[in-house]
């Protein structure tokens, strides 16, 4: 059995305090939380690398996974292209309105807050500039023409800077971002690959499928495919640097075919130590600086005064309690996570608030032994919210999800 073997079914949950830290961490990794479900548990089938261009020594899948595990790259800089196509519906500006609203631009929050800015990675194609110098210093910049958003971790300080609005977010961390703290979003092929290789069992085929060149470097191609039917995942391809063992490109294609759901790869990369000045940051003159504590206070006031149903802190507490009781049904790629939201689900007849009706129109009404509910679908993840507020979610087909929910009752 290769490294990363694990029987822990909770590895997809953020580490740390199960209260505030976990909930804020979840907000920062929204663009890639699907991998916590899609990765499930992976089996290993040894295979010899086929000949290809470049011509590299033969290697088995077991040896290649071990090579990834032993990779000790801590210094790097480069450019990463991220393309995400989950097949999310066009919300006609609703998403940006909800993000900015009380907590974003024009409200008491900050456009530089990572929890809002990094959700942009959930769809479309983006270019990132990344740099790292050990667990204490990392920098990620999201480029958009002449505009740039940067997230910088240097020691205990975390800075977010939005050049478009000239706003700054400042927070602190007590532990290195290498421990997957709340301000470090997965953004490189290595982050995705580690999620996909955390566990191994006989539910998956893992093979080496030749070689490739990525960002000018020679690499092996590791291919991960489910053996089980019912999964929405078709295959995961990981290009592994021949010299360092570091993943250079990660591609997840759906079982339904078509374009990749997630495609993350270096277009340029260097393993030299970045200049120390790369991680220095001083708020520009005239910039609006928002401290993390002040932002949380604004969130609490927004929840109380915005006129929205319920209050933000209470809703977060309810959700936190629901996640604490989360269970995993099934195994391998057909794993389905389930938890109670602590509140009612969507009305079966769509007769609730305007928001309930709108959300209901985006999903499919279903019935079963579990009662009545609504299934929301993307090209990778399906989620069922029942009328009583129970959630079932997984990288499985709609039919498999409903069947799992029926079996849970």
Keywords:
409 residues, alpha+beta, outer membrane lipoprotein receptor (LolB), chain A, TATA-Binding Protein, 2 domains, twelve-stranded mixed sheet, six-stranded antiparallel sheet, 22% helix, globular, disordered N terminus
Note down, in words, how this protein is organized.
This protein folds into two domains: about 20-290, Lipoprotein localisation LolA/LolB/LppX (outer membrane lipoprotein receptor (LolB), chain A), CATH 2.50.20.10; about 325-405, TATA-Binding Protein. About 20% of the residues lie in helices and about 30% in strands. The protein has helices at about 20-30, 35-40, 60-70, 95-100, 115, 190-195, 290-305, 310-325, 355-360, 400-405; strands at about 75-85, 125-135, 135-145, 145-155, 155-160, 165-170, 205-215, 215-225, 235-240, 245-255, 260-270, 290, 325-330, 335-340, 365-370, 370-375, 380-385, 390-395. The protein is globular, with a radius of gyration of 22 Å.
Quick structural overview:
The chain is globular. The protein is built from ten helices and 18 strands.
* Total domain modules: 2
Number of helices: 10
Low-confidence stretches: 1-52, 91-107, 177-185, 304-316
How far is the first residue's CA from the last residue's CA?
35 Å
Helical residues, percent: 10-25%
Major β-sheet strand ordering:
7-8-9-10-11-1-2-3-4-5-6-12
The pLDDT mean sits at 75
SSE series: HHHEHHEEEEEHEEEEEEHHEEHEEEEH
Number of strands: 18
So what's the overall shape?
globular
